[in-house]
Design goal:
There is one protein chain. This protein is an all-alpha fold. Helix 1 packs antiparallel against helix 3. The chain is rod-shaped, with a radius of gyration of 24 Å. It has 3 helices and no strands. The longest helix is centred in the C-terminal third of the chain and has 48 residues.
């Protein structure tokens, strides 16, 4: 019975560890902006598109973080419940 409890505990811990690694949000890199006014004028359309893409990617990044935060709260609650059950089994 002790071996079963230990095996169950290890499986719970390993499953949470792999779930944490699975999801990650990577922040977007800001685009380079030239300092030369002539370059800014020459590439204004390209710079504008890159800026719009960057800001859209920033929004996606924040949404990803929000989603991961919600998922981690759920995982933490579920793990807490599983751990409480484990402690109850140990007390028996």
């Amino acid at each position: 019975m002790v071996l079963l409890k230990q095996t169950w505990a290890v499986m719970v811990v390993l499953s949470w560890d792999s779930a944490a690694i699975a999801g990650s949000c990577l922040p977007p890199a800001p685009p380079w902006i030239p300092t030369d006014p002539d370059d800014v004028r020459s590439y204004a359309d390209l710079l504008r598109r890159e800026a719009e893409t960057y800001f859209a990617d920033v929004e996606k990044y924040f949404r990803c973080q929000d989603q991961e935060r919600r998922e981690v709260f759920v995982q933490a609650r579920e793990f807490s419940e599983a751990y409480a059950r484990l402690l109850e089994l140990e007390a028996e």
